[in-house]
């Protein structure tokens, strides 16, 4: 069994603080070096894991949370009793203050990087980054040139 790396690209497209997904969830495979440099191996990480960022885009949020009591907006839901038990056992935590969502316990080590930080991760590869990683960087850079702040949000799952 391996651990997958999942990435969301986000941009802030207007003057408010809302971030928006600018492409769907990207599965970038199981590259051990990328895995380590994104923070899963603490001693090799270029940046510390930060958890989920403030203002997570709705597109990314729907992939990292489980709605409690059958909220139709989620891919799946969980009963309040199950959610409370999982939180009590330390398997997850509440995502929101109203306790309507929990973090998906199968997703671990959430974090995010600015476009510049992501570029620095890719520049650290002696042979250059894989084409799909470079393509994500190019997408982010197009938005940055347009004056929109960008970032990647990522997590690992089994």
List the defining traits of the structure above.
single chain, 158 residues, alpha+beta, 5-stranded antiparallel β-sheet, 3-stranded mixed β-sheet, 8 strands, globular
Supply the number of helical segments.
5
- Main sheet: strands, sense, barrel: 5 strands, antiparallel
Poorly predicted regions are none
How many strand segments? 8
- Radius of gyration over all CA atoms, rounded: 16 Å
Number of domains: 1
**Percentage of β-strand residues:** 15-25%
Share in helix: 25-40%
| N-end to C-end Cα span | 7 Å
How would you sum up the global shape?
globular
Class based on secondary structure composition and strand pairing: alpha+beta
Report on the architecture of this protein.
The protein has 158 residues and is an alpha+beta fold. It has helices spanning 32-37, 58-64, 80-88, 115-123, 131-145, and strands spanning 4-11, 20-21, 26-27, 65-68, 77-78, 101-103, 107-114, 150-157. Strands 1, 2, 3, 7 and 8 form a five-stranded antiparallel sheet that branches. Strands 5-4-6 form a three-stranded mixed sheet. Helix 4 (115-123) runs antiparallel to helix 5 (131-145). The radius of gyration is 16 Å and the shape is globular. It starts with a strand and ends with a strand.
